[in-house]
Amino acid sequence: GAGGWSPLVSNKYQWLQIDLGERTEITAVATQGGYGSSDWVTSYLLMFSDSGRNWKQYRQEESIWAFSGNTNADSVVYYKLQHSIKARFLRFVPLDWNPNGRIGMRIEVYGCTYRSEVVGFDGKSCLIYTFNQKLMSALKDVISLKFKTMQSDGILLHREGQNGDHITLELIKGKLSLLINLGDAKTHSSNAQINITLGSLLDDQHWHSVLIEHFNNQVNFTVDKHTHHFHAKGEFNYLDLDYELSFGGIPVPGKSGTLSRKNFHGCFENIYFNGVNIIDLAKRH
């Protein structure tokens, strides 16, 4: 009706879905009850999706979060989200409502257009970025990206040195593994090999964020909101590595020993290396 959304039947199986038309960064939501009625929702869940097919629940403090709704038909209850949602579709799912009325909602969504660069990989390709060694800093490197995939295995990032040193970020059985091998090729020493695994079920076709920061020997590896801090043993100096990074696969098969490694099949978004927007660069060059 004119007073807002009120489904014919009030039960746990109702939802109100909004299509924002494009991916949007959503920062806050607000609700009211049905205008001039005794219909309002006292608690609800918020779900979001890029495709309108697979949905994710808004979480806070790592738990599914029910929003407290309204206590009357007209007061506005406003929530600033603790962390913004980037999505095209939103779903408001009523959990409880006024026992003397029905489900009734008026909704406002706050946010702004989400600017992003996305590139798709078909499992046979990779994107190689070659950079100027004059721009290299031996002291600090920062790589960030988002990815989504339905495949449980694939190479996200690879960088190799002349003497067998390499850094590889690989999805293995739905978990992300960062392998830093600074073993001395002459002695085949593995004491400088580091393998850190973070995350699980990352092949759920939702976006996941990755951040790798390296300052001298200190490395921070972050997947979504979980960070692992560690020190790289040995001479961890990027100057021993090639001036190229490959995303989505290892460009020359047989490099780094294992042939079994699969290329990445899925999407990357907003790949940055030391502030350089790699996808934008690839589009322009």
Automatic annotation (TrEMBL):
All copies of domain F5/8 type C, residue ranges? 1-112
Q: Where is the Laminin G domain?
A: 118-285
Domain of life of the source:
Eukaryota
Q: What is its main location?
A: membrane
Instruction: Return the CDD domains for the record.
Output: FA58C (cd00057), LamG (cd00110)
Query: What InterPro entries would the database entry show?
Result: ConA-like_dom_sf (IPR013320), FA58C (IPR000421), Galactose-bd-like_sf (IPR008979), Laminin_G (IPR001791), Neurexin-related_CASP (IPR050372)
For membrane topology, the record states: Single-pass type I membrane protein
Q: Which UniProt keywords apply?
A: EGF-like domain, Membrane, Signal, Transmembrane, Transmembrane helix
Where in or outside the cell is it found? Answer: Membrane
Q: Name one Pfam family in it.
A: F5_F8_type_C
**An example Gene Ontology cellular component term from the record?**
membrane
The record ties this protein, via PANTHER family, to:
CONTACTIN-ASSOCIATED PROTEIN-LIKE 4, PIKACHURIN-LIKE PROTEIN
Family from the record = Belongs to the neurexin family.
Query: What name does this protein carry?
Result: CNTP4 protein
The gene it comes from is: Cntnap4_0
